[in-house]
Amino acid sequence: MASVSVKEQPRTAYPKTLSSIVASVGGLALFLILASTILVSQPIGSTVRGYFYGVDHSREIDSISTLNESVSTVSTLNEPVSTVSTLKESGSGFNSQHDDGGSITIGGGDGQETVVDKKQTPDSQVKNELSSSKQEEIKNLKDESPHSNISQQETGNKSSALPEFTEGDENAPSNNTQTELKDAVASSPTATDRSQPDVVDSGCDLYHGKWIYESTGPLYSNNSCPIITQMQNCQGNGRPDKDYENWRWKPSQCDLPRFEAKKFLELMRGKTLAFIGDSVARNQMESMLCILWQAEVPKNRGNRRMQRYYFRSTSTMIVRIWSSWLVHQTSEPFDFAPAGVVKLHLDAPDEVFMKYIMDFDVIVLSSGHWFAKQSVYILNNEIVGGQLWWPDKSRQKKIDNIEAFGISVETIVTALVTHRNYTGLTIVRSFSPDHYEGGAWNTGGSCTGKVRPALDSELVENGFTNIMHKKQVSGFNRAVKKKTNKSKMKLMDITESFSYRHDGHPGPYRSPDPNKITKRGPDGRPPPQDCLHWCMPGPVDTWNELVCEVIRREFEDRQNIAS
User: Fold this and answer.
1) pTM of this prediction exceeds 0.85
2) DSSP alpha helices (H): ranges in 316-378?
3) pLDDT tens per residue across span 220-265
4) Given 279, 432, 487, 499, which residue is catalytic?
């Protein structure tokens, strides 16, 4: 009988087994290919693409965030403005309360800190691409820092926000600084709770609160943003301290969310945000760009008349237009005013930017400081006043530069709220305080050596800032009452809170020159310095956190009304 070896049996069976495996694998692969093609081509394809690529263009703005409370109507939100105006005019100041420790609390409520966005280093190629445009803009739009000749006098305490520390900060200021502050300012009863999620009360007052020390750090650095104007690049210019970058604004009754660039771009998907005004408006616009730069490097699409930065991921445009006074200006001779002197037609808006407003979804207006510069005031086709110009002493001025500012605010706001085709949101940022202590910008005023927010006992009253703010609020309120279109108008009232930020200016650190003078001379005179514009990063970034929150509230309010 022939015997069969055990080793010989598998040799005949093995090829059949291999064929079966190959056929199975091939069939499975074919099935997966067909299934994937069907999934991507069907309506759920956007979900699949979003999963693989992190992009879903089908999302609409109503899926960005949820509303905690509906935003108040225009008249309701303007009510605090009227109250501010009334209190200022009566000389009462703002209605704030002191606790036993000397801190000031207006209202109450708990707030929470949010997490820092990851920083992304800008693309070096885009840096080079933007540099020539930036240099040309600085050459064309370079301006001096105009200020009033009214000196500042120390008048004791003022009811407003006080700086406080968040407990447990490892990078807080020195022990001596902390001791000095804690002696004068009691710890906040509404200390920040990092364990809680970020909660925002959509109806709370954003503009009364306190400055608290936040060791998380700024939203960007001077090295991660290539478009900072050199005069505001305080760290790049050698400023030795950095604590001024770490103070955050804490409203009394809620929390101001930390700016998240990606969320903001999504909020502004397909929309345009325009900053219109003077060099302080440029300061704020550059701050906004630096924050957004950490999420995406924009494309520069600007020209000499208008800066335009395009964020491709959400088709968002950030624009800036230069307008020193926001009203119509000419240099031609007018009546007894010769050629060469700027004439301001206080009852006519600046047509340079008015022709573009229908293209803007959000406008942030900034003005005021140029009313200290030489100009002629024309109202109803008549010369009614002038600043640093009035050749005929026998003629009596009808208005001064402060009254002229108030009229200009009413003019431009009225033009926006009565324009039949404008439906956007306008945010009027209130007068930005300067901190030239001991004199004006050209008479020895200084902010040298300020390294933290002022205490009440250190606050220096600025009469010019106070009256300019009062006139601005009055002009705003008068104009809003004339509203006839569907646009929205908000006053972003930062003047009082930022009067405490004397530490946030470049001071003598205006250039990278290693030989610049940064200390007072033997005679006590301070070096040349800038106490008007704001360091970047620095307190100015808070303005854009406020802008973001105002926009978020408004857009969510519109969604609620529509639904």
Assistant:
1) no
2) 351-354
3) 999 999 999 999 999 999 999 999 999 999 999 999 999 999 999 9
4) 279
